[in-house]
Description:
Blueprint: E1 26-32, E2 39-46, H1 48-54, E3 60-65, H2 76-87, E4 93-98, H3 115-128, E5 135-139, H4 142-153, E6 158-163, H5 178-184, H6 186-195, H7 198-204, H8 213-220, H9 230-237, H10 248-257, E7 265-269, H11 278-287, E8 292-295, H12 303-306, H13 309-321, H14 324-327, H15 329-332, H16 346-350, E9 357-361, H17 368-372, E10 377-380, H18 381-397, E11 405-409, H19 414-425, E12 429-432, H20 438-449, E13 453-456, H21 458-466, E14 472-475, H22 481-487, E15 489-492, H23 493-505, E16 519-524, E17 534-538, H24 539-553, E18 560-563, H25 566-570, H26 572-575, E19 578-581, H27 594-604, E20 608-611, H28 613-621, H29 628-635, E21 639-642, H30 649-658, E22 663-665, E23 668-670, E24 673-678, H31 681-693, E25 702-707, E26 712-717, E27 736-741, E28 748-749, H32 753-759, E29 760-761, E30 769-778, E31 784-789, E32 794-796, E33 799-801, H33 803-811, E34 816-824, E35 831-838, E36 846-847, H34 850-860, E37 866-869, H35 885-896
Parallel strand pairs: 3-4, 3-5, 5-6, 6-7, 7-8, 9-19, 11-12, 11-13, 12-16, 13-14, 14-15, 18-19, 18-20, 20-21, 21-22, 35-37
Antiparallel strand pairs: 1-2, 2-4, 9-10, 16-17, 17-28, 23-24, 24-25, 25-31, 26-27, 27-30, 29-30, 30-31, 32-33, 34-35, 36-37
Amino acid sequence: MPRAATVAAAASLPPAGLDGLRPGWSRLVEVAESASGTPRAWHVLDNAAELAELGVEPVGTVLCVHGNPTWSYLWRGFLADATDAAARGDEAWRVVAVDQLEMGFSERTGTPRTLDRRVRDLGDLTRALEIDGPVTTFGHDWGGVVSLGWAVDHPEQLAGVMLLNTAVHQNADEPIPAPLRLALRRSVLGRATVTTPAFLETTLALAHPPLPAAVKAGYRAPYRRAEQRGGIGGFVADIPADAGHESFAELDRIATGIRTLGVPSLLLWGPRDPIFSDRYLDDLLERMPRSDVHRFEGTGHLIAEDAEYAPAALAWLRDARSDAASDDVREAAPRDAGPDYQPLWHYLDALRDSDDTALVEMAPSGSARSAQHSGPRVVSWKLLSRRVRELAAGLDRAGVRRGDRVSLLVPPGADLTAVLYACVRIGAIVVVADAGLGLRGLTRAVRGARPDHIIGQAKGLTAALALGWPGRRISTTRLAGPARSALGVTHCLADLVEIGAASLAAGTGLPPEPDQDDAAAVLFTSGSTGPAKGVVYTHSQLSGIRFALAGQYGVGPGTGLVAGFAPFALLGPALGARSATPDMDVTSPGTLTAIAVADAVAAVDGTVVFLSPAAIANVVATASDLTPAHRASLGGVREFLSAGAPVSEPLLAAAARLMPGAVAHTPYGMTEGLLLTDITLDGIRDAARDAGARGQADAGGVCVGLPTATTAVRISAIDGLGAPIGHPSRHPNVTGEIVVSAPHIKNGYDRLWITDRASRLGTEPGERWHRTGDVGHLDAAGRLWVEGRLPHVIVTADGVVTPVATEQRIEGIAPVARAALVGIGPRGTQALVAIVETVAGSRRVSLAPAELAAAVRRAAVLPLAAVLVVPKLPTDIRHNSKIDRTRLAAWATGVLSGGAMRQP
């Protein structure tokens, strides 16, 4: 590859007035090249002088290295935050952000610089600056590679590694990113990178949202003339696109060397980067598997401009310096206490010879399954156990390995159950993101989880292909040759069963069982409070869920479990229970009917029924369709549960009347921790009576009962601005964030280090605590009351308002079906707005009629600025009941400011 022409020029200081750049940081440093002794002038940004003025001693140095075509200006925000933190009395970090030679305001030497030379250059600079450690490197783009090269060469000084989007390896069977392929063309290279500012301008256009004009001017400042842009072209020309390139060996040396760095590492990533996509993140994680990772959803290549990355980096630096034994909860916490560990497949092994029913698949009407079977599909323990073993062996022979991620795009039923248990048995990590997320949400989830394999129906695999989801593809059914080829399918489940059966028959056993602390699953949240998050569970924590359910409700061998919520149905085999999922559309739980529930109960002689809150209303509404036989089946139910969102006492009571022999429960939990508290219908009534006796008609929320046997609950009190600041405690009648601990609490969030760190709380040695983001209080009896979500707390001039109690009062008036309370205006002086769905229904958005508005205001008690009527409140799909109050607040602000009255 020919080198772009470079023109020698002296180093200089940046012009005054560049946005966000403090003049006191800039300095020129003369550095002798180690190979020749030739002096070179570098421009660097360095906060050492400011730290000295503050009289603080730095605890270490962060060495920041930009890529192409940026310069040290990229790091101005990090420099500012680090310096300001030191001024506040926090840890002081010296930050040195370099302009590499030929770039920024450093010297143009007129000499092409290959990767190995740039790594030596950086070492020459740190010697000249007498930086002797501890040093944490921080690199972006090709500066990431250079910084890692320095790290490999200076292990005795290295304390840690931080990276923004970068890459250290290019698979030979994968093309380099399209923008770089274009720039590397002989006919394009010079014109795009040097003669014109096209490469620079294209890079600046990658910001999300677009960069302000002043920031663009800052990046352009050292590259305004063609003779200043030779380094940009030289950097592109030095990309080792193949093994024949002169910098390939150095890149390979660095890529190999980082495997043995042995220091903490942080990867902050912009997933919308068209150059350094998630596949390069995967490669870095394979080389540095213990790295902390945070993917900033919606950000791209210029992540330093797209995201608030600097506070995260500084927080990570503090953590990295802390004593791991006392401050790293993940490392410090002992193996979860509780019963003896029992893997999820325990009963599949124990009942492998039983002809008793393990599960019943209630086939959707009109489906291919219904065409093949006149009734429900009944699967015995013997068949299910054999099929799981065969699939496990087949997956292993097909190359699915321990630690591989397998995305399951399979509808609830026997196939999903068998595949899931086969995957966890061989140590693969199942990725479960339900169809309720919608196509966009599913795409975000699957891409973010980066599965190695995808198992799905043809429809799901078609979407995976069209939307660029990663992973080898396995189909649930046999496909015709053209379809199989077009979708890139390597196997179908029937193939794997045949392969596995042959392997087992030949005496080849299954792989060793995974360890109980290995990751077992990534389960995605509903996305009701932002993009769905991947929640990581270990085998031990999933076993803890099984233990909690068994202990609380007596679910075990011999129990008939009907689950109108797919994740609970999947736990049936782990509990040793025979299970069934009612005939329903999992993407629309509100369509579940009373007959479908009764049929499922009859099919498994059900004694325990779980229904999502979204399903209950329609089950109650369709109860008149039940026959005496249906009612007889429901009469055998002994425990009825509904969880996932608050359920009103009247609705729970109506559902309980359909199952007169059952105790109705509404447990509190979330994807991050199922079954944390529990309350019965009678308990709800008792709590209401107790509150009434104290003169508190609603007690400020929904009572979700007492903690389960393995759960501890605390409250972190919120301040006058709605922020949780209190030390978690069990003091009664203190409103704050709900904090929970249990053996089955999540292990962490997947590739969301910042979110995971914020959710963790260590209050007592040896315990893992999770900040739920829910707001509530404990009453004098120790019962938990949920008052809303932390982001939905409203701060008025009169104080903090949590929404649920007021919403309940409004929903208590006859015309209102559902209500949401939101705040509009500046926080601290927010005005309250009630938004309602009416029982009669509304075809358009409007201000509430006078009579309805007056009734809502009387019920609310609190002063309302407005009452709005909408056809439908925005809710999540999975539960169809979690109202998106943040979205509603923004919508109401627009409407009441004169905007169009459109459906929110």
